[in-house]
Design brief:
With about 550 residues, the chain is an alpha/beta fold. Helix content is about 40%, strand content about 15%. It is built from 19 helices and 18 strands. It has helices at about 5-20, 25-40, 55-70, 90-100, 110-120, 140-150, 195-200, 215-220, 260-275, 290-295, 315-325, 340-350, 360-370, 390-400, 410-425, 460-475, 480-505, 510-515, 520-530, and strands spanning about 1-5, 50-55, 75-80, 105-110, 125-130, 155-160, 180-185, 205, 225, 250-255, 280-285, 300-305, 330, 355, 385-390, 430, 440, 445. The strands form 2 sheets. An 11-stranded mixed β-sheet has the order 1-9-18-17-16-15-14-13-10-11-12, with helices on both faces. Strands 4-3-2-5-6-7-8 form a 7-stranded parallel β-sheet, with helices on both faces. Strand 16 and strand 17 (about 440) form a beta hairpin. Helix 3 (about 55-70) runs parallel beside helix 4 and helix 12 (about 340-350) packs across helix 13 (about 360-370). The longest helix has 23 residues, at about 480-505.
């Protein structure tokens, strides 16, 4: 796994590096040289480079990069808002003057028309304007420079973080550089992996800068870990000819109402497509005929219902009896929030079965705890695995943030940790869903590779719930493996979304298309896990 550090913790690592003999000045030189090396490896002809420098250390990295490129015979020009002698930062001023003495050409605060002409003649633009300490909205001249860069059509390499993007939150409050490549120093930051960061960073390369970096990053207690394919080894055991439908895992899906019939259908179909050998769907009695018409291979059971077409409290005992006969239960899709559905969810939480809670099952928990789940840890303490799969709105309702739900990956992780740390056990994982998803236990937060934008469609979460239940139903999962298992489910879901694009187009994918691709996605991921570098050797 690759570590991810909060921005403030990166500063601590930089300070710790000075304690082992790597000065901040040396780090700046290494960052600039690493950037220059990546410019040379961008492919194609790179004969002319424009380096856009800011006033701080990020700009200093750019000046070092420019001097190194000049020494390699590249035509390079620096664009700076002030003369090198007027740069406020001591280190940045020193390296800027070094580059000036080395003969690096530069222009100071050029008119927009001159800047546009200069950029149009470049093969690569290096964005070294606003670094990881940036917050808020870019001010002049950087707001105009960012617009010119994005309109140039030239390949862009950003140093540490695209200017205008928060390296911590992944959010933007104004114009932001859209980079083709981001060379981030020392370690990944959460904002590069989430929200607008996913669109703006392009390919991300980590430049560690020092051999001591890995140790110091681990000691800094990463906020999360980015999953790699080799982390999933053994998570997808091969099928055996000795398997039957029960040894492949049995899943009970509990959900549905007269208003929301499709959600439990999609969840059940996803569980089956993801590999569960036997899936059963339990729904309120009035909708059984409609549900059965859509499910030929999946048994549909009728449970007691209230007048409004939701589960009645009388369904709770039957649900638990059914769950005890299955290897995993998923509760929540489409069942609404009523006294009856709250009773069903509560009884399942108190049962001794592996459980995935999604959608309205989560909202039932919020109702049950008056939007303060972190104050009721006893509700979640159990011996068998429990996976909660809230999107940011549902997560906000669970922890009293319903009026101001988490807006970024980092705030979502903070909210999820309130739940898992209150529980304190290793049997619970919160899958905080979003443009980037985090699978969080009391010990670790695992970040799966995000899926494509096509997954932002109604029913996609129900599909993920079914995949999650299918993987969990296969058994033999240790509690400490739960975050990785949940991450794998997210990656299967994302891979299926990518495959569905090939069939339906990027804007035409619906949840049902994702379901159809789940089996192919698992096979493809299984092959990638076994042979991460490509085809197996003959």
């Amino acid at each position: 796994m690759q570590p991810v550090l909060n921005v403030e913790d990166v500063k601590k690592v930089e300070n710790d590096l000075t304690g082992v003999g790597v000065s901040i000045s040396e780090l700046m030189h290494r960052a600039g040289i690493s950037t220059a090396r990546e410019v040379g490896e961008m492919g194609g002809s790179v004969q002319s480079v424009v380096v856009m420098c800011g006033l701080g250390n990020n700009g200093g990295d750019g000046w070092v990069c420019a001097e190194d490129l000049l020494g390699k015979g590249v035509r390079v020009t620096v664009v700076t808002p002030v003369e090198p002698d007027d740069i406020r930062g001591d280190l940045a001023r020193v390296v800027a003057n070094s580059a000036k003495r080395a003969g690096v050409p530069y222009v100071v605060a050029p008119p927009r028309s001159d800047l546009e002409q200069l950029l149009s003649q470049a093969d690569v633009i290096v964005d070294a304007m606003l670094g990881t300490g940036f917050r808020g909205e870019p001010r002049a001249p950087f707001d105009i420079w960012i617009q010119c860069i994005n309109e140039s059509g030239v390949r862009v390499l950003s140093v540490d973080v695209p200017s205008g993007l928060s390296a911590q939150t992944g959010l933007t409050d104004g114009p932001c550089v859209a980079a083709d490549l981001t060379v981030t120093m020392i370690v990944l930051k959460p904002g590069l992996l989430s929200d607008s960061g996913r669109d703006m960073c392009g390919t991300i390369v980590v430049a560690p800068l020092a051999e001591q970096t890995e140790r110091l990053v681990r000691e800094a207690d990463p906020v999360a870990w980015r999953a790699d394919l080799d982390d999933y080894v053994g998570m997808l055991p091969p099928l055996s000819n000795a398997d039957d439908k029960f040894t492949r895992g049995s899943v009970l899906v509990v959900g549905g109402s007269q208003r929301f019939i499709g959600a439990p259908i999609m969840a059940a179909m996803a569980a089956a497509r993801a590999g569960a050998g036997y899936v059963t769907l339990a729904v309120p009695a009035p909708i059984v005929p409609v549900v059965q018409a859509h499910l030929l291979e999946i048994p549909v059971l009728a449970l007691p219902s209230a007048e409004n077409g939701t589960f009645s409290a009388d369904a709770a005992s039957t649900v638990v009896e059914l769950a005890e006969k299955r290897s995993c239960t998923l509760v929540g899709p489409g069942m609404r929030v009523t006294s009856g559905t709250v009773a069903v969810t509560s009884r399942l939480l108190n049962s001794d079965v592996p459980l995935v809670v999604d959608a309205d099952g989560l909202n039932c928990i919020a109702r049950l705890t008056s939007n303060a789940l972190d104050e009721f840890p006893e509700l979640l303490r159990r011996d068998k695995p429990l996976i909660l799969t809230p999107h940011r709105g549902e997560l906000g309702r669970l922890v009293g943030m319903q009026d101001n739900p988490p807006q970024s990956l980092t705030t979502a992780m903070e909210a999820a940790r309130r739940i898992v740390w209150a529980d304190g056990g290793s049997e619970i994982v919160v899958v905080a869903k979003g443009s980037a998803t985090a699978c969080i236990s009391a010990e670790v937060a695992v970040l799966p590779k995000p899926g494509p934008a096509s997954l932002a469609t109604a029913g996609s979460g129900d599909v993920l719930g079914g995949v999650m239940a299918s993987l969990l139903s296969r058994g033999d999962i240790q509690n400490e493996e739960l975050p990785v298992l949940a991450s794998l489910a997210c990656e299967i879901h994302g891979y299926a979304g990518s495959l569905a694009i090939n069939k339906r187009g990027s804007r035409g994918v619906m949840a049902g298309d994702v379901i159809d691709m789940l089996g192919l996605a698992e096979d493809a991921l299984e092959e990638d896990i076994a042979f991460p570098e490509g085809e197996p050797e003959e």
